[in-house]
Amino acid sequence: MIKDDIHECAGLPPLRTNKNNDRKEIENEPKVKNLINTHLLLSKNMKILLDDLITLSDKIEEIVFSDDPTAKFLVDSVMLKYPTSGENVKHLRNYLFHMPLVHPDIRRKTQKFAAEELKIRTEVNDVLLNELATTTNQTVDTINKFEKNHGIDLDITRNVTIFICAKCKSINSIDRFKRGKCRCGKLINSSSSAQQKSFTILNSAVRKFIAQDMWLEEGFAYLLRKKGYQVKTGISILGRSGVFHEIDNLAEKDHKMRLFCECKSSVLKLKDIFNFIGKMNEIGCHCGIMVTVADEVELDILKVARGNNITIVSSIYKKSPEQIVSEIPNCPI
Ligand SMILES: [Zn+2]
Q1: CA-CA distance, 207 to 59, in Å (whole number)?
Q2: How many whole angstroms from 94 Cα to the centroid of ligand 1?
Q3: 189 Cα: distance to centroid of ligand 1 (angstroms)
Q4: Pick from 321, 272, 324, 269: nearest CA to 297
């Protein structure tokens, strides 16, 4: 249940607001705060870093968190050794991982097949574990280089521990040791029957912060504050029709200026600006800023913006923070 607040700023009409719990959770994560406090969110280098880290983390997650990372490799390898027609692939997959449905052709080769499977599975697992180590090193080195270049401390990752079967090198449990039987048949009943390894990925709240474009909202909020505004990010505000509308930044100044911001990591479309105007009218705010990382803004959008008291701030990556601050209006414009 989301609790509503009354937002008051003397001299301005009060607003009924709320913030969803997901958003609060992300904002309260210390690693997200660490990232915000670098004050580098709108720099191109930071965006490149975060995109690189997401790619590396995706690679690790694909290996660690998929049901059976060796499955695809195994089926491909085994298919080469035991050619079957295309329609038998499903049966082969079932044989390898669930054992219930076995195509007669494969059943005849059971013993030889099982030994072969263990051998290939172990080889493939070795390759995947090496890949994990390499990707973790790349993650750590990439962050380390950025920290050194910018003279900052960037604490945005988490370490994950995995427990590996000593016989076939499959990952059997993640984060904490769990007893059980490995796919290869080996009983994993104590931590000594499993090898332990750890790797580094982006903290999950940090991932959401990037994926949901909160970096852009928080990055711009920092510059609004530099301009003298008090800012709230990522809130919903009640409109006159009784519907709440998401507003990226609510900025207020000197108890007489209020403006809304809409932040877009993509090219602005006409419907974006009309949607924004709709929210402004509904809530009763007559001054806005649309922020975009894109360089090109359609002439029609610029005209609609000008006619509705909206400032467009584009090409974020190409401008210095000072230049962006200078473009932020002192409402009313
Ligand atoms: Zn095993």
Answers
A1: 14
A2: 18
A3: 12
A4: 269
Contact present, 75 and 92 (Cβ < 8 Å): yes
* DSSP one-letter code for 249: E
Using alpha carbons, list the distances in angstroms from residue 74 to 3, 69, 106, 136, 175.
51, 9, 15, 24, 25
Count, residues in the chain: 333
Distance separating alpha carbons of residues 177 and 163, to the nearest angstrom: 7
CATH code for the part of the protein at 5-29+210-327 = 3.40.1350.10
Nearest to 103 by CA among 88, 116, 122: 88
Residue in the block written with tokens 């962006």: 324
Cα of 84 vs centre of ligand 1, distance in Å, is 26
Ligand 1 centre to CA of 125 (Å) is: 10
Distance 188 CA to ligand 1 centre (A): 8
Strands of the sheet with 288-292, listed across from one edge: 5-7, 15-18, 230-238, 244-253, 257-264, 288-292, 310-313
Contact 325, 223 (CB under 8 A): yes
CA of 153 to the centre of ligand 1 (A): 39
What is the pLDDT at residue 86? 47
Q: How many alpha carbons fall within 13 Å on the CB side of residue 140?
A: 11
Q: CA 287: distance to chain centroid?
A: 31
How far does residue 277's CA lie from ligand 1's centre (Å)? 59
Write down the pLDDT at residue 300: 97
Domain ranges of the chain: 5-29+210-327, 32-202
Instruction: Output the CA 316–ligand 1 centroid distance in Å.
Output: 51
Rounded Cα–Cα distance for residues 143 and 52 (Å): 10
Torsions phi, psi for 86 (to 5 deg): -50, -40
Question: Which residue ranges in the chain fall short of pLDDT 70?
Answer: 1, 67-113, 116, 331-333
Q: What is the pLDDT of residues 43-90, one digit of tens each?
A: 999 999 999 999 999 988 888 877 665 665 555 555 555 554 444 444
